[in-house]
Amino acid sequence: MTTTLVWNPLDPASIQDPYPIYAELRERCPVYWHEGMSSWVLTRYDDCQWVLRDHAAFARDRRRAGAEIPDDKLNIQTQDPPEQALLRGVTARSLNSQRLQEICAEARELMEHRLRGLAGAGPFDLMRDLAGPGAIHVINNVFGVHAYTQDSYAPIYRGLTQAMDSGLDPERLAPGRAAGRALSEEVGGWFADGLGQDGLLGMVTGHADVPGLPTPYVVNTIAATYNAGFSTLYASTGAITLEVLRAGPALLADLDPADPHVLTLAADELMRFTSPAQATARVALEPVELHGVRIEPKQTIVTMMAAANRDPRQFADPDRIVLDRAPNRHLAFAWGPHICLGARLAMTWAAEVIAFLAEHGPRLRLAGQEEYMRAATLRNLVRLPLEYAG
Ligand code: HEM
């Protein structure tokens, strides 16, 4: 399918509000060739779900399409089934065995404490003053390591997040690699020093060097998980807050924050509506035909989950937040063998953020223009000015 539609995902207007262009792509050109990314871009729900689910036909592990990845660069995200099973299983069990509920509740208390200090003091920045402290508290406590602060982690977060778009802007590759090296060195140090024995890290460390799990692969996976965790918890705190405040106090007025079922439905809906993870990629391993377009083996396919999550073929009234939407089979955490390993933690945190907003939202107001990082794969606010009446 050919089209004259021109789209630069790094255009600030597209980052600010990508949903109009997603809708246009979805309706006019569901299999769109993006010259800059040298990739096919899919925006319809069924198509994205199919590609994410069918790992026999579409690889995350580029070695299956002939690429070379040195052993010291392997991590959970570069391996497909069945090789991924052992470390994915160990990491998921270690993560889900942590005190996720308590840790998230502590981080919410931390945000509440800081918010009280900001009452009546004029505009503050949600990202710097609340989301950053909350997200770093959660991730450090889950890992059982407190080496990074919000400020010391910021350059690594920025480097890795921007490098996700290096297909669009190759200049992001070198700083991204440097950030990745710095993080892996730090995590390697945690291993060597035996830090974090009580947290996720300690549980996973116990499996390093067992057959099939060489230490660099484990270290890289821990590093990738730490960053995936911090970056999305931080970004989703901002995204959820912005959408809830934009919608106005009526949105959460009838929500019972003490009801975990209600909170889970609401968290799912806000993930569908405003997940920070816009897209991921796979490589075709065999020729496939989709909406009259032939995709060749070794071609890259970008699945735009954020576009699929607003597909009216799957979701009634997709541009409206319906807090009790069910079923809600959104793709915010992707689908298939690489589905987000931290989804339970992400949902637990989102529920805390929503409960926090149900309580304090009526006295919070947007107090200036929000700002996004110039990043398209992970859409994330870097500034969200608010005021709190107390
Ligand atoms: C709002 C929060 C989150 C969102 C929207 C999100 C989204 C995603 C998505 C879309 C993927 C799949 C990527 C792909 O298939 O290529 C993924 C994978 C992953 N996520 Fe999350 N994530 C979130 C939170 C977390 C947290 C809190 C952690 C860990 C602490 C985490 C760890 C991971 C890991 C390790 C993977 C790779 C899994 C694999 O490749 O097998 N994520 N996430």
TrEMBL record:
Pfam families the UniProt entry points to: p450
Highest taxon of the lineage: Bacteria
Family membership noted in the UniProt record: Belongs to the cytochrome P450 family.
Protein name, as recorded: Cytochrome
GO molecular function, one term: oxidoreductase activity, acting on paired donors, with incorporation or reduction of molecular oxygen
SUPFAM superfamilies (alphabetical): Cytochrome P450
